[in-house]
Design a protein that fits this description.
The protein is mainly alpha-helical. The chain is 44% helix and 10% strand. Helix 7 packs parallel to helix 8, helix 11 packs antiparallel against helix 12 and helix 11 runs parallel beside helix 13 (313-323).
Length: 330
């Protein structure tokens, strides 16, 4: 069966296969005639009905009494207990590596995650970073940059994210920079110098240690709290001292402090607008000078869904990169 609906911006379609035991769902997002993202999922259907898995993550300290309220439809209830943050990082790693579909963001995210694979699991188990690196090299477009799929039209934020992933790979593998790497960096600087960039793109370029003296940030009518978090990290990278009250004020606007965000599905206008990414960034900002705040952020990240199977792949990658080296004591 096929259902098609038309929006103000164009057409979108939803397809369901005719198989009796599995539904194949495909979705694609177009801007004008350019496909910028797509996904396909296989949904098994059983005669007895669908099985779903639900649960929550909680931090506990000391002796804790847990009460389970089992729904009538529940088949079983399981309790998992861990005192090692890396157990949660491994969950993210497995979910990221098991993801089947590979746009350029997902390849770059797998490259970031794969760098942690050997330390987390003792070996790469077939997910060697070099595999994803090689794939990215073949997907560069004629302009020496990256779009969403293959060698598609250049997208600045995507190109900056891929360069950031490559920076992590080169540094982790202790590989000397080569012409491929330096050429991509040069093209990023050239494009960014000609056109002002978003806070997100500027941050990624700054985090990647590119020279930013000719780059300007786009002005907006209203700076969001997410952009303020990016701006705070940019200032930190530039050597500014970050004050505790600045951090606390911004945290109060995230899902850790804003109850409305915990129950509202906020419309995301950019692919990098996921709430959890900005908590990971706040952890990066606070872990050295404000370890107590960083500890609360780690707790919040787990309790507010960073371990969901359906968290975006870039969130999983940034989570892994931020936490895999913290060790069992965290």
């Amino acid at each position: 069966a096929t259902g098609t609906s038309k929006s103000a911006d164009g057409n979108y379609s939803f397809y369901v296969s005719e198989q009796s035991d599995t539904i194949t769902c495909r979705s694609a997002l177009f801007v004008h005639t350019n496909r910028i993202d797509a996904e396909q999922r296989l949904i098994p259907v059983y005669r007895k009905g669908n099985e779903t898995y639900t649960g929550t993550y909680k931090f506990v300290t000391g002796d804790t009494l847990l009460n389970f309220h089992k729904a009538d439809s529940a088949i079983e209830t399981k309790l998992y207990v861990s005192n090692n943050l890396n157990d949660f990082v491994r969950m993210q790693y497995k979910q990221l590596m098991d993801y089947s579909y590979l746009c350029n963001e997902q390849i770059a995210s797998k490259l970031i995650g794969a760098n942690a694979g050997k330390q987390l699991n003792g070996s790469y188990h077939g997910n060697h970073p070099q595999n994803f690196y090689a794939k990215l090299k073949t997907n560069i477009n004629d302009g020496g940059m990256y779009g969403w799929w293959g060698n598609s039209t250049t997208d600045m934020s995507m190109s900056a994210y891929l360069f950031y992933a490559l920076k992590i790979f080169y540094k982790s593998a202790e590989i000397p920079v080569d012409r491929f790497y330096t050429n991509l960096g040069a093209r990023l600087i050239e494009h960014a110098s000609e056109h002002k960039v978003s806070y997100f793109t500027y941050w990624l370029m700054k985090e990647s240690e590119l020279p930013m003296n000719t780059i300007e940030i786009q002005s907006t009518e209203r700076v969001t709290y997410k952009e303020l978090i990016l701006k705070l990290r940019i200032r930190q990278l530039e050597g500014d001292t970050i004050k505790r009250r600045e951090v606390e004020k911004l945290l109060s606007q995230t899902i850790l402090g804003n109850v409305g965000l915990q129950t509202t599905n906020e419309f995301r206008s950019n692919w990098y607008d996921d709430e959890l990414m900005y908590l990971i960034l706040m952890h990066k900002i606070t872990k050295k000078d404000f370890p107590d705040i960083a500890a609360n952020i780690r707790k919040g990240l787990i309790e507010h869904g960073s371990l969901s199977e359906y968290a975006p792949t870039y969130v999983k990658a940034l989570f892994i990169n931020e936490f895999y080296q913290l060790g069992a004591e965290q």
